[in-house]
Amino acid sequence: MRLPKVYNPYISAIIATIGGSLFGFDVSSISAIIGTDQYLKYFGSPNSTLQGGITAAMSGGSLIGSLVSGMLCDRLGRKTTIMSSCAFWMVGSIICCASQSVAMLIVGRVLNGLCVGFTSSQVPVYISEISRKDVRGKMVGCQQWSIEWGILIMYYIGYGCSFIKSNASFRIPWGLQMIPAVLLVIFLPICPESPRWLASKGRWDECHEILAKIHAGGNKEDPLVLAEMLEIREVVELEKSQTTSYLTLFNKKNWYRSHVGIFSQVWQQLVGGNVMMYYVVYVFQMAGLTGSVNLISSSIQYVIFLVFTFPVIFFIDRTGRRWLMIIGSLGMGTCIWIVGGLLKNYGEYAESVGDPVVHPVQQLVTGP
After folding, report:
1. How many CB atoms lie within 10 A of CB 27?
2. Which of 249, 327, 335, 337 has its CA 20 to 30 A from that of 270?
3. Rounded distance, CA 50 to CA 113, Å?
4. Where are the alpha helices (H) located in 130-272, listed in sequence order?
5. What pLDDT is stored for residue 280 in this prediction?
6. CA distances (Å), origin 271, targets 2, 265, 275, 316
7. CA separation, residue 74 to residues 67, 68, 78 (Å)
8. Cα–Cα distance between 235 and 128 in angstroms, integer?
9. Which residues of the chain, if any, have pLDDT below 50?
10. Helix crossing, 18-31 with 78-97: angle to 10°?
11. What is the pTM of this model?
């Protein structure tokens, strides 16, 4: 049976950005749980190094997934690659849910990370390739908003489950992680394939038809459609005339753009947001908050994510990307500096709040 197709690019983008919520679910499935007594007791109160390894396992899988996703995506297509990667997420979620040890949990998170590497790199590509130029930034920006919705939803699921006085308090959230992947596999087939990918495979008639349905209600002679076809044809012919590999990214023509693309992401991560995203529970714990008060207070920053990202989506295509990134980086750096100063002057060491994970060196020196 042939599935019906939805050619509205906004609906396609909404469906595709479910892939972003996978990343969000994974973030808060750790941040909402690592401070609970049930988690600490079952996994033997992992020290800071081990907990760092558990948290970073997803990032390790993401690194591998993002490196291989481009090659597979060019070969199999955007939709097929994204849907196939969901298998890693489902299996990883099952392993996390059934974890009997830290090693098992790390394996599950690595598999989850493989999927995040695929979806976080290829969903924006897919969205950009079905979007008009004048709204491309806005539509790709929805990916970040989806990540933040995933973070907030899973965090509150984790918070609610923290009241369960058994291992189910962390097994239920880790099992529920599968839901976005299932939805993505169900709904993505009704979205059109990327016109650019079809063109790269010589399927020009399909490319033209999809562009017409996406941008002009099926009118193949629409000026916008014809201009897009011409642009895609030029790009495809240029790509075929050149040898492409990872080394090509660093030749004389591309090194500067590659530098900007890579290090804008590197510094976006190193500016400090991940400290608060993954370990906000520990930060609030050092600020003197414990139990349910800590968990519900920690969720405030996830609400702020959503509130401040939404208006930015509408500025991306007007003000440009660069200044928004500069302003955001300066704001984040300032906030992290303030948090560090407050904790330095008013924060409590680990033994004061009863969690040796937060400050193991001080715990070691002073004793229990």
Report:
1. 23
2. 249
3. 18
4. 136-161, 168-176, 178-187, 195-200, 204-215, 223-240, 255-270
5. 76
6. 47, 10, 9, 20
7. 13, 10, 7
8. 15
9. 352-354, 359-368
10. 20
11. 0.79
